[in-house]
Amino acid sequence: MTRSSRLLDIVQLLRRHRRPVTAEVVSRELEVSLRTVYRDIATLQANRVPIRGEAGVGYVLEPGYDLPPVMFTADEVEAILVGLRWLRARADASLARAADDVEAKIATILPEALKPVLMESSLFAPAMEERIVVENIDVAPVREAIRKGVRVTIDYADAVGAKTSRTIWPFGLAYFDSVRVVLAWCEWRQDFRSFRTDRISRYEIGQKYPARRGDLLKRWKVLTGHTLKV
Q: What is the 3 state secondary structure string of the chain?
């Protein structure tokens, strides 16, 4: 590994973590000595990369820092491609079109040596059509409601067919192999609930809910341990 590649790897490593990363962690991941890590961190700081911290405490990369454009590796291209193909087979029409657009944009920036990795890929992520559940709604506006942090009133049928109308604060959307699930705070239950999109027969987009979407997500993670049930 060249030193320039290692410097970029350090920045990428710090970007993946919100909490301070110790030099020992960097050393193990990059398989270099602590002295090399300290020297590389100092070099990055001298070049105005906004890294805060010190030896023995850990380092963090200040939010908002962007790396200069870097090229993908073949493995990275394949990782993106499999993800896009998985999504395309399972997402709503709007998100599937976005996946097509992303793939087309990547194709325009790849050097000639990497284009066959994308254009002639033999990696697939097909959905089992007999398992895909048919939805009665367009999920795209629900995704937009999640981004904007607004209430959604839904008509919902549970697993045994019991129907209710309730107002929820959606903050996430989980993609399983055959179904999609909205993660939300339910005003009726005064608790976190998940709602399969194929069991929503109608919805109405409302006004902003009185909470930060990120805070709801954090509370949900603490209370559920990231566990989702279909």
A: CCHHHHHHHHHHHHHCCCCCECHHHHHHHHCCCHHHHHHHHHHHHHCCCCEEEECCCEEEECCCCCCCCCCCCHHHHHHHHHHHHHHHHHCCHHHHHHHHHHHHHHHHHCCCCCHHHHHCCCCCCCCCHHHCCCCCCCCHHHHHHHHHCEEEEEEEECCCCCEEEEEEEEEEEEECCCCEEEEEEECCCCEEEEEEHHHEEEEEEEEECCCCHHHHHHHHHHHHCCCCCC
- Pairwise CA distance, residues 153 & 168, whole Å: 6
pLDDT at 129: 66
pTM of the complete model beyond 0.85: no
pLDDT in tens, 185-215: 999 999 999 999 999 999 999 999 999 999 9
97 token code pair: 């079109």
